[in-house]
Design goal:
By secondary structure, this protein is of the alpha/beta class. About 40% of the residues lie in helices and about 15% in strands. It contains 12 helices and 8 strands. The radius of gyration is 18 Å and the shape is globular. The protein starts with 5 loop residues before the first strand and ends in a 5-residue tail after the last helix.
Amino acid sequence: MFNFPICDAHHHLWDLNAVCYPWLNAPLGTPRFFGNPAPIQKNYLTADLQADIGALPVIESVHVEVGAAAGQHLAETAWVQRQIEASRNADRQLPAAMVAYADLEADDLSQVLDRIQSYAGVRGIRQILGRSPGEDQQTGSHLLLDSPHWQRGLSALATRGLSFDLQLIPAQMERAYPVFKRFEQLQVVLCHCGSPWFLNEQYRHSQTEQMWLTGLRKLASLPNVHCKISGLSMFGQKWQPNRSADIIYQVLDVFGVERCMLGSNFPVDKLYIDYQTLWGMYNQLIMRFSAAERRGLLGENCRRFYRLKA
């Protein structure tokens, strides 16, 4: 039984007729870092999210960019803005706001951000630093942290009042700490509990739990860094309720309840778990906290971070 309304802090939508996504348009079943994407290589629209939510009291959500093709990122932003506007007067605002993509190394970043911020639903930017050790070596995303040009991009976000969704892997946390320590005015949220790849046998030794926990503590020592509890099925590539509970409690202990928010990562996590089961677990795990803390975790912390209207 949910006593408070939910704001889903992290999910995706896509229309393959409107925007090109290389990983979704690839041959069916082409492996991704989170497993076999075949079941979700099709349109996932607001109506599909509504169907997954069912009767749960999800009243708002935040859409996060999902890897559009080069040259298609503004098309994705425009398409998501249309979904925001279509839901504005509905009982559920799905989505109510979005996190868009921008290449923070781009020479024309100022002009790009001008165009992105022309869409009223934009609250922040995500440019992924780390997906998995194997995939990052192929894409070069792991090199961004060391780029002064990219770091100047972070400064531009702070100046413009845009937040940053930080997705990286445990081995990057030590390097990320001094970078983000320089940008105290930038509101940052760590995606997916910091990508606990130790849940996966393949990376258990290169991305250890201790490495993750040490890095988590360093990032959490920065008061402007928050954390999304989301996406845990991607790393073990199966539903592990007991291990997920352990990780969630560690995150809540390290960051504090007031700097954490809950997300579904749907439809990616739909590969491993249904929406009802996921939020049922969240609700059960947070019962040990006060009513005000539960209200914050289920929605108010997300609404405050992403500046959603009352």
